[in-house]
């Protein structure tokens, strides 16, 4: 199959779409990605990239077409320009395109407007369109950004309706998202629960990170250090647990990192909280695998309560018990399957739950670790989920041809 992918983010930015495209190529498909210039999470274009700098247009067999999208910077106006840029430039790419692909796939992490050029391509060539829903709009704008402006909500709803209407299948990363679409009136035959997958971690010859103490209880957070994750709560818990063996490690980078580093200094918990920084996927897996618990957190709102974050699958694949300060679907998955500890994102509850986790026996930890691996193997392996996607693609392509 020839598959055209629209994604505002792609390698060297670190998103699961990279792995999916590479895997599809390995399975014999031709994959082309229409993306911007790498700038996430810093809000500025990476060193070595620029509109006037030639770039490698092949990566692991994937063809990359970069359109001139200005980086979002740190303000709302920059974010708006970044959003509009991608739509305008990708639409121009579609207008000039003479290549017919078999199907279009959209990787939608915010903003939802990434789907608009795909709609235009579908209309031009009459091919099936798959929309991989990672963020809900306009709910994301209202609940996460706190922007409640009726004309803007109306406009976003019009955009969303256009994208959903053009999609043959909407791949929902959680059951909560799928239910949201049903309430919105999206036809049931378009809705598919298709969670994010995780590659099998490469832990061969891996050794315990030296920074992990032998006499400490090591809790790791791996992923984007953003405001949505509510990591201030973790720092507050570290302050309350000062003098205990509990230690916290943050693997990754993001917009909230500098602020969190300052808060750690202000709270006097530099020994209790360690920033590892941005590392390779293999190295991140090593930190997760050898931790005593892996930390999952979100701010408490209805959008995040419907979310299954990609880091959850990574934690499960690494066989690490989870400490979840979250509600909704993530909390239910952890508590109902015996794979960790759950509390609401409240300071007193997190402190008590961390103490409880630190007191578990070796046998309890091994049982949770085994349960985590089993759940991953049953629900989130890349091989099974990509095979399911291939089946859906072939079916819709054949149906379109008929």
Largest sheet geometry: 8 strands, mixed
Query: CATH homologous superfamily of the largest domain?
Result: Glycogen Phosphorylase B
Q: Return Rg in Å.
A: 21 Å
Task: Tally the helices.
Answer: 15
Overall geometry comes to globular
Number of strands: 14
- Topology pattern, helix = H, strand = E: EHEEEHEHEHHEHEEHEHEHEHHEHEHHH
Average pLDDT: 94
CATH fold descriptor of the largest domain: Rossmann fold
Top CATH class of the largest domain: Alpha Beta
As a percent range, the share of strand residues is 15-25%
Write out the strand line-up for the largest beta sheet, numbering strands in chain order.
Answer: 3-4-2-1-5-6-7-8
Structure commentary:
α3 (116-125) runs parallel beside α5 and α7 (232-240) crosses α13. The longest helix is centred in the N-terminal third of the chain and has 21 residues, at 76-96. With 402 residues, the chain is of the alpha/beta class. The strands form two sheets. An eight-stranded mixed β-sheet has the order 3-4-2-1-5-6-7-8, with helices on both faces. It has 15 helices and 14 strands. It has helices at 16-26, 76-96, 116-125, 139-144, 150-166, 175-184, 232-240, 257-267, 281-289, 302-305, 310-317, 328-336, 347-358, 362-379, 382-401; strands at residues 2-6, 30-35, 58-59, 62-66, 103-108, 129-133, 169-172, 191-193, 217-222, 246-251, 273-277, 293-297, 322-325, 340-343. α7 links the parallel β9 (217-222) and β10. It is globular, with a radius of gyration of 21 Å. The chain has two domains: 2-197 and 381-401, Rossmann fold, CATH 3.40.50.2000; 217-379, Rossmann fold, CATH 3.40.50.
